[in-house]
Amino acid sequence: MYYIDNKIMKELLVSSVLISLVFLAIKIFESKLIKKEEINFKNLANESIYVLFAASGAQFVLSQMGDISSISSMFGDSVGEVGSGIPNAFTNEPDF
Fold first, then answer.
1. Taking the domains of the chain in order of start, what are their residue ranges?
2. Which tens digit of pLDDT belongs to each residue from 23-65?
3. How many CB atoms lie within 10 A of CB 47?
4. 3-33 as b/e, with b when 16 or more CB fall inside 10 Å?
5. Rounded to two decimals, what is the model's pTM?
6. Which pLDDT does position 9 carry in this prediction?
7. What is the Cα–Cα distance from 74 to 81, expressed in whole angstroms?
């Protein structure tokens, strides 16, 4: 099953709340200064909660994936090597 450390969970929650607050600030800035309309706090609260859940979910999934630095090896750096993502093209007579 999934295991997440208490410290990691706190960091995930804090960063998700910060992302949500930045989103809220940008939306208030957009409503007041750019569109020059009244702020609908109910819709802003709903959207901020959606952003909070989306950020938490994305960070949780990334934390469960572990080290993703080797993901570029799936695509391969050269053509035709074993394990590379690009296969060789057979253009000559078969050997069999």
1. 18-62
2. 999 999 999 888 888 888 999 999 999 999 999 999 888 887 7
3. 15
4. eeeeeeeeebeeebeebbeebbeebeeebee
5. 0.64
6. 82
7. 11
d(CA 38, CA 30): 11
Q: What is the pLDDT of residues 75-86, one digit of tens each?
A: 555 444 555 555
Q: What is the pLDDT of residue 80?
A: 46
Assigned token pair, 49: 């909660």
DSSP, residue by residue, 39-55? --HHHHHHHHHHHHHHH
Token pair for residue 66? 């572990």
Rounded to whole angstroms, the Cα distance separating 35 from 46 reads: 20
